[in-house]
Predict the structure.
Amino acid sequence: MTTLLHISASPRGEASHSLAIARTFVESFAEVSPEASVSHWDLWDGSLPAFGPDGAGAKMRVFAGDEPKGAEEIAWHRARLAFERFAAADLYLFSLPMWNSGVPYIAKQFIDVVSQPGWVFGFDGETGYSGLLEGKRAAVVYSSAVYGEGRPPAFGADFQQPFFEGWLRWAGIDEIDSIEFRPNLAIADAEPGRLAAHAEARRLGAEFGRDARAAAA
């Protein structure tokens, strides 16, 4: 059975534009492929472990070919559980608001927890990194209230989409679709952009649903 995992980095619940657009995507996906499995991971729900000194120590031990012990082993195990939850999906949907020109810190924490050697990436001293999540597809909902393409620098810069899509490709996910909602909420009418984003979410959700249905055939 094909699984779509929706990972949300917005803490704003019903007030979140990125979450609303993601819901449209999921509804469209489920209409086309009702037999597929859909799961949701709210990164703010407390299930994402920290990755501090013990986690970093464990990672360096693994890099050195050693086994983590004690508190480091516990941190490594918790990170592994998060990775397995992530890696079990075939298709991904991320809802990702812009914070301070980049991604919310909880999204960076997610990346730092799951991006471990032998899980998300391999490494060779001569050839460098290789992504291990090949064969998966991702859609990302990007939202921002001030920044938008073509606006002056005083309205911010985009370190959100290049960073996140760079991470996806580094992890081996090359098939990436994006949905953007970037109104200047201070002065602009947001409705045309909102409608366009939801329309694109419906289109892509149906396309992902057809992929899931074909995989199950």
About this structure: The chain has a mean pLDDT of 95. The longest helix spans residues 191-216. The beta strands are 3-8, 37-42, 91-97, 121-124, 128-131, 137-143, 175-181.
